Amino acid sequence: MIQEATVVEASMLTAHRDERPKFLKRFWRSGMTKLGGFLLLALLLFSFVGPLLYRKSAINPHILSTDIGPNAQFPLGTDSLGHNVLSQLMVGGQSSIEVGFASAIVAMLFGTFYGMISGMVGGWVDTILMRIVDILLAIPSIFILLFLDVAFQPNILVMILVLASTAWLGVSRLVRGEAMTIKNQLYVESALALGIGRFRIMLRYVLPNIIGTVLVAATFQVADAILSMAGLSFLGLGLPPPTPNWGGMLSDGMNYMFQNSWWLIYPPGLCILIVQVSINLIGDGLRNAIETRER
Length: 295
Fold this sequence. Notes:
- By secondary structure, this protein is mostly helical.
- It is 76% helix and 0% strand.
- It is elongated.
């Protein structure tokens, strides 16, 4: 019986390995996916490699150079306190991207295993776990985010956990539905009949079959998290000074909307727009590749 279970597992893993090169080819053949990847790579280089090349402080102000438009010394000008806008844009991208990706990863991990346990175990366990999700989903996410952000002193770790606290809910429902479908498949029933434990089945059979769906959801969660962080920062509830971020820069720039200080508004807004578009294009490419494989 153990040998039969091993054969079943080996055949499943071999099938998934054979599918990987074809999946990557389908994913990357779309021009829009390539565009999204190029835009995201450009933003990553700008935010993380840019400060290594453009060695200007994003925190120390230039007292004698406040509210200056773009020039040779300050390519994107300075704000009302004399901060170099280009340096702040680079460093602000680091915190925005780090929080966005980290909160999406936390939400994906927790939501995936929460949903798998609910779908695979079923019964009263499934009922209780899903009612908890329903109750939390009934509360507008902005209220939860505002409450948690005010209750705890904002920092990068707190922002990651705050954003992940609402992002995992939709993932858990999605994964639960996939797990319930896979649970009724013949190969899973055969594995249960052979005495393979449920936890091992979740890791060996369920997770590989839902990983594509989870990755698609993760890409959109990254975009949502970056946008949510920008929204909180715009309301003055984001990362505290002196840590810059795109949402906070946009919020500060809006105070000078009618003073023709466009360099305080358009650059952070454009960065938020580009990261949203790039990640959504990548997510669409992943979804199309998965749907083609399933057909």
